[in-house]
Amino acid sequence: MEKIVQSLKMEREKPFCAYLYHMPKLRQHINFLTSTLPPLCHLFYAVKANSDPEILKALAPIVHGFEAASLGEIEKIRGVDENIPILFGGPGKTQEEIEGAIHYGVTLLNVESTHELRLLNHIASQKGTSISILLRVNLRNSVPNAKLKMAGVPTQFGIDEQDIPDAIALAKSLPNLRLYGFHFHAMSNNCDSKTHADFVDHCFGKAKSWEEEWNINISYLNVGGGIGINYLELNNQFNWDDFTNRLEKVLVKHRDISWKVLFECGRYITSSCGYYAVEVLDIKQNHGQYFCILRGGSHHLRLPAAWKQSHPFTIVPVEKWAYPFERPKVINSAITVAGELCTPNDVLAREIQVPNVRVGDILLFSYTGAYGWSISHHDFLSHPHPEHLYLEPDDFISEQSIEFVRTRYIDPLITN
Ligand SMILES: *Cc1c(COP(=O)(O)O)cnc(C)c1O
């Protein structure tokens, strides 16, 4: 990737600023995930992690379907695939969104409240149709200790576990709704395979007890997404092999039931294929600390500022220097990497030890394919947007053989 960034830089006059997507790596990664999940498990992609149509196009033939959280996402999905299954969730659904979901043939709708049950039933009866639903549960406990928690703590998501019996009774009484199961998305960025498998087991137990107690017949257990990326230690990622081994044991334990188990992962699917490459515009020292200023920043990659953590990067050296005066640099020092915005919050990495960095070099941030561009405030300060480049095998051939690319850039999630 460094070589490609160098050659792309040579072709450009303006300071470099681009999102790069390693498309072969994305396809290889998603193929690996879908092919190693046990039977009865289906992997959906949670579109909000990165809704770029090129990414959706690459994933559509490989994933089981997409998870959407708005009508806009549903429309993006239908723009790349007219028939692929869609799960639709999220708090605060409007009448327009629900009508859109019916219009676009959403497969299952995750219901977030009892009011939403009544609203759905009302709209479905007006349209002379029925809607297939899962009840989204906000568990009281047993949610792994991940970076973000949507359940297990008071949040705006789902129906409180203790109110689920009432919600089941209500759903059963509404003629235009079909209750097919439960939805448990509860956390984001869980990097621990054991607690994730335990969570799936816990969801099985809950759904089973409700099915028996309330005499319903369910078909789906949606355990959500939430598998994480370890941004702080890139060589210590979620152990997928261990997870799928444990998951198989969970399925054996519950072999008396034949529900389909739905996963709707976002971050874990697209994070590793994305890179954000951005040129250093200035280097200076303030109050004894070095700052590198980039032709970009948190308006393109908000994640590190949002989570107040340093995002991993490598330095791509650029030899060209256009000016007749001294090129600013730092050697063997700690640098804080800041963007071009006029706010002290625009920091991508703090006090990182680097061997050598100069104005005009490019910083290459990895693992930016999920919750990168999609969650950022692009137009704050009205700077130009980055380029978005989708690298295919041909782009790598010019630099070195494909074999080299395969071995060098093979997904660390897979090799570890
Ligand atoms: C965001 C979200 C996901 C995906 O979460 P990741 O942490 O990216 O895997 C899945 N389901 C729902 C309901 C979500 O809101």
Describe this structure in words.
It holds the Pfam family Orn_Arg_deC_N. With 416 residues, this protein is an alpha/beta fold. The protein folds into two domains: 2-19 and 276-389, Lyase, Ornithine Decarboxylase, Chain A, domain 1 (Beta Barrel); 85-265, Alpha-Beta Barrel (TIM Barrel), CATH 3.20.20.10. It has helices spanning 2-10, 23-36, 53-59, 71-80, 95-103, 114-126, 164-173, 193-213, 240-253, 267-270, 303-307, 393-397, 402-409, 412-415, and strands at residues 17-22, 41-46, 65-68, 86-88, 108-111, 131-138, 148-149, 159-160, 177-183, 187-188, 220-222, 260-265, 274-286, 289-294, 313-316, 329-338, 347-358, 362-365, 387-391. Strand 2 (41-46), helix 3 (53-59) and strand 3 form a beta-alpha-beta unit.
* Annotated CATH homologous superfamily of the largest domain: Alanine racemase
CATH topology of the largest domain: TIM Barrel
Q: Structurally, how many domains make up the residues?
A: 2
* Helical residue percent band: 25-40%
Which architecture of the largest domain would the CATH scheme give at its second level? Alpha-Beta Barrel
Query: Which structural class should the secondary elements be placed in?
Result: alpha/beta
**Structural shape:** elongated
Q: Span between N and C termini? A: 20 Å
Number of helices: 14
Bound molecules: pyridoxal-5'-phosphate
Query: Would you tell me the overall average pLDDT?
Result: 94
State the total count of DSSP E strands: 19
* Major sheet size, sense and barrel closure: 8 strands, mixed
Unreliable stretches (pLDDT < 50, length at least 5) are: 401-416
GO molecular function: diaminopimelate decarboxylase activity
GO biological process, one term: lysine biosynthetic process via diaminopimelate
Keywords: Pyridoxal phosphate
Domain Orn/DAP/Arg decarboxylase 2 N-terminal: 29-270
